[in-house]
Amino acid sequence: MGELTLQRIELVEIDMPLKHSFETSFGVTTGRRVILVRAIDNNGNAGYGECTAMERPFYNPESVDPAWQVIIKTIAPMLASAGVRTAADVNEVLSPIKGNRMSIAAVETAIWDLEAKIRDVPLHKLLGGSRREISCGVSIGIQANTEVLLEKVAKEIDAGYQRIKIKIKPGKDIDLVEAVRKVYPDILLSVDANSAYELERDLDVMLALDEYGLLMIEQPLTAGDILDHAKLQQKLRTAICLDESISCLRDARQAIEIDACRIINIKLGRVGGHSQAREIQEFAHSKGVPVWCGGMLETGIGRAHNIAMSTLPGFVLPGDVSASARYWKEDIVEPPIEVSSRGTIEAPSGAGIGYTVRESEIERLASRRFSIEL
Ligand code: OSB
Ligand code: MG
By the 8 A CB rule, do 72 and 372 touch? Predict the structure, then answer.
């Protein structure tokens, strides 16, 4: 009862132009090529997941085209031979795979949605969520100049978002923070460097940023630099938050153990899906380390999974889970994801991810498809 029998994995790639381009220290994103996964059972029920790999491997080593191949050539056959009966087993079955966690997450999250639909419960309940309303912040990309940045910050504060994060890179950092802090001395403000700094070369910049009462400095150094993050954390009052460095529970344990970070950003894709995300937040919570849900410019499908995950008890800080309309003219779910004037989203009460997937819109945007019988 409630067990699932996977019948088929369907992939469809869609092209989604962003409303506004999004600039980070690693480059400018103008749109996303998104691999969507449908996990289908023997009764024709469908669960949905989204692959958050970027088109090119600049955020992390994954990217769209290799992800497509890994799902078809490795993940689907492994699931076929394992015969999984519950979403909680998928992560373990796929554990022989090194890396490629965004590909794994795309399929794993689809199977969680499918199982929640089969059981007719909201995904956040199936995961064990302890809150109904989640807190939302925004991530603001690098802007043409400080005036434009201040306009964007004002707009998001007016909309009710509880935390503002601004992207920084060498040469576009202290001045931006100074300008925002001058107008908003008290808001929850953080910066995200996406790995652009180096400990010795940029220590003076980090020490300068430490003077602005930031909630956190997100991923200042390269992903593999856990040791250097620990050295940097020793020199700062501001909490370091790790994003790119944390791919799994083991990474989180080691980072916390050596005090390389005092906050963790959890992204479903980066860690390989709901099972691993849940373990990381549970561990961090037990160590008193707050976590929050990061974003990868997701469509409504990925966003809905992020909402469900953010109801877990360790997610005590506002996440980068913002309204569909910040990124998309038209989202592929209905209703589009909206944020209240208090900067919150209520987890939906419908089964699974709780939003209706607009198949006709997906059809219209589709550039390729693949179907694998299990
Ligand atoms: O580092 O958090 C990041 C977008 C793409 C890649 C990496 C990151 C981001 C964001 C956007 O900050 C978060 C969002 O989806 O709103
Ligand atoms: Mg980040």
Answer: yes
